[in-house]
Every structure is written in C-alpha cells, then in structure tokens.
Amino acid sequence: MHVRALPYRIPDARAIDAHQWRLDLDDGEIPMPEAYPHWDYQTVLTLRRQVDVDLGRVIADSKLAPGTSLTLAVVWTATGSSLRGTGARVPLTSDGPVEVVMVLPGADLGGTLQLDTIIVLSERRTGSDRPVAARRAGSVLWSDRHSIRLQGDAPQFPMAIIDFEKTTYPEDAGWYLDIGSNLEAATMGSLLLLVNERKRVIASALENAAKPRAQDQVALSMVYIDIARTMIEHALAQPEFQDSVTYPDDSLGATLQTLFARLFPSTTISEIRALADRSPSRLASDIQAAINNLGGLA
Fold first, then answer.
1. Three-class SS state of 106
2. Can you give the residue range of the structural domain that contains 130?
3. Do 36 and 152 form a contact (C-beta atoms < 8 A)?
C-alpha cells in the first residue's frame, strides 16, 4: 500500500466530521445513492452535506499560526462531460458545523459525478517561524471523496428545443441529432439532440423523458429508434470503429460500443457492418426490434 507523504503537517482526521451527502428530490431529501436511476441532462442536481470542523484543532495540528485563513471547498468532476468546477467555497471562521449546498445543472454533468470536499489554506503564508506548516495557497489539509453514477432512461446527452423554421434544418422535421466524429472525445460534448419546438408532441415527450406519461411513450419510442439508427450508422461509417479498439471511459467511442453491445449482444461490429452493406433496410428493422425489446434507449 502506498502512503502519500505531504511536505507539511495536516490535522488529525478526528478534527473533521463530514456527514453524508444528501440529494434533494421533488418529494424530499434522501442520502446520496451510488447511482441516480432517473437522472437525465435536464435534471438539476441539488446536493448538500454538513461538515463539523474543530477549527482550532485543525490549525494547531497543522502547526499553523492562530487565525490562519482556511477554506472549505467542494470540487466536482463529471466524467461524461469532462467538465469540473468548484461547487461550493466557504471560509472557515470558527468551530462548528458548516452547511455545504451545491446546485449543478444537468447539462454540465453525465457519467460519474465525483465530489471532492477539501479544506485548504486560503492564502500564501509568509514567514519562516513555522517551517513544518503548509505555505502555499490551496495546500490541502484534509479531503474526502464521494461519487454518484448518473444514469436513466432518458437520452444521456444534451438537448436543445429550438424553432427549426429559423435554422437550416427542415422546418417540418421533429428532431436532428448532431454527432461528432472524434471517437475519443467525451460523449456529452459530442452529441446534441435538437428538437423542433413546433412539434409539441415530440418536444413534450422529450421534456418528460425522465418520467414519461402514457401519451409520451410512442413518441419517445420513435425518437429512440431514430437516435440509435443514426448513431449506429455514424459509427459504421468510420473504419477505425471496431470491437478490438479500447476507448476512454465515457467517450463517444465507448458509448457507441456499449450501444452496439446492448442492441446486438451476440454479433460483432464487423458482422453488423457487413449487414449494413448488404441490406441497410434489414439493419434498420433489427435496430427497431432491439430498441422495442429493451423498452427504450438508456
């Protein structure tokens, strides 16, 4: 086992009591689960936790001068979008509980959301009277990490509802999937579903995709089948896309490989490519059947 040795003193772990993360839902607050089964790109995540800090002990254990400025912060990282940011930053001014609340827009997330709670030195420390103490601003004195897997039955990429009449897209089309060509790029940054706001049946169904009504199911099935067909045809058009290639987690290539595996679990990509060349209409029919058997595209 490797133990990280820092070049400065840190506090005893008992000086900080970090409570469990909690997730706000429409019907109340629950402990943050390992996975959020009803998440989609439109879901705004509200997360909160309490951290009890014995500030005097943290400073003393770290051999810092009394009154040294410290900050409690939370840094989030989303594997699906390859984005990260500071979700909360709270100056520590006294002993006691610190309430941390973060509101994260779904469009920035995806994949696994990692939350790093840290206590850091707020500003550079000058002087040489305490050589064993942290000196640089941002030096981490304490940290912990938790994560939640974001998943669901709604399309797992961003969507924009726009007026197609004001674009170059056919004004009577219901939707258009914009898909990138870099298979190693993050999925969340490579896919964008554009929905025509004039097609209210389609737009409403996708807006309710996380919790669809009975009348939304048929429209969603149509959209999911078309999205899957577009993604599969796009992948097959790129010769380098093969079963043997390993793509980064949550990349477009990995997402496409997962889609192939779900729809055609006993068929190789090479075999599907041959079917597409031989009979595109049969491939389209097979995709339709596979999507309907799965009950939708997750």
1. helix
2. 13-150
3. yes
Model confidence over 80-96: pLDDT tens digits? 777 889 999 999 999 99
Mind listing the pLDDT tens digit for each residue in 136-147? 999 999 999 999
Whether residue 178 sits in one domain with residue 144: no
> What is the tens place of the pLDDT at every residue in 242-253?
999 999 877 889
Would you tell me how many other CB atoms lie within 10 Å of the CB of residue 119? 27
Question: Which residue from 120, 122, 113, 117 is spatially nearest to 143, judged by alpha carbons?
Answer: 117
How far, in Å, CA of 67 to CA of 55, rounded?
10
Same-domain check for residues 191 and 211: yes
Tell me, yes or no, whether 146 and 163 share the same domain.
no
What confidence tens digit (pLDDT) does each residue in 185-239 have? 888 778 888 999 999 999 988 888 767 788 888 888 889 899 999 999 999 999 9
Where do we find the tokens 């959209």? 223
| Average predicted confidence (pLDDT) for the chain | 87
Q: Give the pLDDT confidence score for residue 1 in this predicted structure.
A: 43
Closest by CA position to 149, among listed 76, 78, 251: 78
Question: What are phi and psi for residue 151, nearest 5 degrees?
Answer: -155, 165
pTM: 0.63
Q: How many helices and strands in the chain, by DSSP H and E?
A: 7, 13
Given the structure tokens 């595209």, which residue do they identify? 297
Do 184 and 143 lie in one domain? The reply is: no
**Average confidence (pLDDT) over 23-40:** 83
Domain boundary residue, one of 120, 150, 180: 150
Side-chain-facing half-sphere of 160: CA atoms under 13 Å: 10
Q: E strand or H helix at 146, and its extent?
A: strand 140-150
CATH number for the domain harbouring residue 80: 2.60.40.3880
